[in-house]
Amino acid sequence: MVRITEDLIRRRAEHNNLEISTLEEVSLHQQDIEKIEHIDKWCRDLKILYLQSNLIPKIENVGRLKKLEYINLALNNIERIENLEGCESLKKLDLTVNFVGELTSIECLCDSYNLQEIFLTGNPCVSYEGYREYVLATLPQLKRLDGKDISKSERIKAVQHFDEIKPKILEQQKEYAKQRAKEKAEAEEQERIKTAKELARKERKPGFDGRWYTDINDEDFEKRKDKGDNEEKIKEIEEENKHDEEFWDEEVPYTPESRIAVHKQREETRKKEEQKKPSGPQMIKREVRLETDDGQKMNVNEAKIPFCLSDDEENNAIVLDVGCYKYLDTSLIDVDVQPTHVKVEIKGKILQIVLQEEVNPDSSTAKRSQTTGHLLVTMPKVKEMVKALKQPAVPVYTKTSQQENKPPTQKRTQERLEVDPTAAKHVDLMVTNETTSIGPYVGLNKKAVKERPNSADFVDDPDVPPLI
Description:
There is one protein chain. The protein is of the alpha/beta class. The chain is 27% helix and 14% strand. It contains eight helices and 17 strands. The chain has helices at 6-11, 39-42, 131-138, 152-160, 162-203, 218-249, 256-276, 401-405, and strands at residues 25-27, 48-50, 70-72, 92-94, 117-119, 144-145, 148-149, 300-301, 307-312, 317-322, 333-337, 341-346, 349-354, 365-368, 375-380, 417-418, 430-431. The longest helix is centred in the middle third of the chain and has 42 residues, at 162-203. It is elongated. The chain starts with 5 loop residues before the first helix and ends in a 37-residue tail after the last strand. The model is unreliable at 207-213 (pLDDT under 50).
């Protein structure tokens, strides 16, 4: 019998740093659990609970989980819905492929006002006449049943015919209860016969070859003993194989007892396979070498985990990015940075990388991403790198298409003050509206141009056009 232990829950709570008091989701499926226990005491904040594919015969010890919103109990041996009244926040209940025959037991969910969806597919109660109408009338808060939406008209019809449907449901329940009692009696009888056969087979211990010998020498005795032991082993193996074939070929109804019998048979087969394994010295595990005979370090990736080693020239450092698993607990990772190599140990598996340049271990840092879980190890180099000074970049302005298509604008003119040069003491300042090409100090300190006399041989020809 597999029990729910604290160690089991902690192993399933790696995503919550192995803390179970604040755990909101846990998966305990396919663990061959036969009883629900301790969860309501250890995990009070639980919202999602997976318990499918086990051997649980009864719903119990979950009434204190006030925050529980979803519980999956598919593929178990549950025959009755019970002990869920305390789950105030329950929204979804999955009981697919169980043995719920007492359909009236769903009345315990009437006060679960947050319940929106329930799955009962694969249970004996689904074959009852009026099953869906009875569930809809009993649980008016439901929105979906067995994966199908519930319409208003369907619910109204179910409430109207509830008085007619309930007596039929009760009668079918009684018939199923009688059938289950018969199946239990047959299962107990088969178990008793099987136990008697096992005892008879164990008590049957013949001599070496089925006879007793008195006047024989030691050599003959040993030969007959070895021969008898071999024959007995061969006969036992044949009987076991025959028994296994009969068990798997036997047609039995699908009941909780048959599921338990199949589980026990598989456990016996597994134990026999383990016994067949050689009991001698096991193969020595190959030791991973981290350095050569002369002491040089080697590149080793025992964890077979992806990594990326890059050179950060901007910060003059070597960066190692290790692709650790997202939900791996950080306490299972150990980093050791040395001047010539770096070693990362992940759950006992070693990743060692030899560095091309010497690094400073004291200034190295190791960080882990909360999003991807990757490990980033930054190792500054010992030798400083000489960098050229960066000249400030000269901005280059280019005309955009909008500026090219923009019409030319007129230049703004400046208005200047005109001063009368004759009035030196009393300056009359005035603002002109229009500017002229001539400045305000026209004629001030202007030299007269002397006309040059004509040469002696100058002839004034009127036909010659004047020079411009």
